[in-house]
Amino acid sequence: MPSNDQDPNRRDFLLATAIAASTFAAAAQPADAAGWFDRPMRWAQLTLVENDPGKYDLNFWLDYFRRTHSDAACLSAGGCVAYYPTKVPLHYRSQWLAGTDPFGDLVAGCRKLNMVVVARTDPHAAHNDVADAHPDWIAVDADGKMRRHPVMPELWVTCALGPYNFEFMTEVTKEIVSTYKVDGIFSNRWTGSGMCYCEHCRQNFQSATGMELPRTTNPQDPSRRAYIAWRQERLFDLWRARLPIVVLADRDGVGRVPLAMMGSSGSVLRYSALVPIGSVYRASINATGASLSNSSQGVGAIGPPSAVISGASATVQIPVSATSVPTGTKEIIVGDITIGPHD
Question: What does the domain layout of the chain look like in residue ranges?
């Protein structure tokens, strides 16, 4: 992923995709995953190339992970090239895949070693069939020309801020997580490859700012400054498109406290927030057909919250079921939680 001081950082992205992975999974069975993204770990990364399926040595790599006492592995899964038998239309399969499933075999082997597994996807480039079917998914330069890959000219550079990432890669991510129950997703070069002037970027930027896309990199230029802020918000929108946000709402529903995702275990996500003593929160969920009981049980939350009291505040922890959150839910509001006085 290219470094850029206006991009969300790697740790935040890994945390967010860990949440998304748990949310998409119907019955995930990861390694002991509570807070895995924050604890010291020995990582291994195995990045496949297209002709590896059918000739790479599965047992060699699993034995390598065992001998190096690796706690986690980042494994090539999909995006530009799929290393599993994908069913997503236009998701290019390795031509050497045949009837094999190298990604699935690696995941299964790592699970037997009790390892955390993160799937590596690469959304930055696509093949000709994608460009032919959806030319609007391809990045466009300042002269209005679709961009060929600078190193692999048989590929096209994709637009990170349009439907390719928001729609196509979201479907790829859902397929990987629901099929293989991975603990997270790492997306290589997910923030794009420089300025894009495709129809989606032009229209979305103009709608958001009333301006044309900048033709300068001067940060003092008003359109460039607006673009920097818009691009960052657009990338955060990509996160929001893939996972619900959990918040506490006070009794009148006005004040809100966002909860941080603290870890996952199976299909249970654990959210936490620091709240003042004496806080009372309202129980509801803004998804059609969903509801929460006064004890914060039911759709969304799967059990009563716990609280660790320290001084004048308390850390509230709420378990949320990834399987009971309705598809398309953008925000879960949990409440009817009273943090009373203490000695």
Answer: 10-240, 245-334
- pTM of the complete model: 0.67
Distance of CA 111 to the CA centre of its chain: 21
The encoded tokens of residue 312 equal: 């004048």
How far apart (Å, rounded) are the C-alpha atoms in residues 23 and 268?
Answer: 9
Q: Please, which residues have CB within 8 angstroms of residue 158's CB and are 6 or more apart in sequence? A: 123, 124, 125, 126, 130, 137, 138, 139, 164, 165
The hierarchical CATH code for the domain 10-240 is 3.20.20.80
**What torsion, rounded to 10 degrees, do the Cα atoms 90, 92, 181, 299 define?**
-10
**39: Cα separation from own chain's centroid:** 19
Rounded to whole angstroms, the Cα distance separating 245 from 320 reads: 11
Cα separation, 258 vs 316, in Å, equals 11
> Are 117 and 75 spatial neighbours (Cβ–Cβ below 8 Å)?
yes
Greatest alpha-carbon pair distance for the chain in Å reads 69
Residue with tokens 């003042």: 276
Amino acid letter, residue 137: W
Residue 164 CA to its chain's centroid (Å): 15
pLDDT digits (tens, 9 = 90+) for 223-252: 999 999 999 989 888 876 665 555 555 544
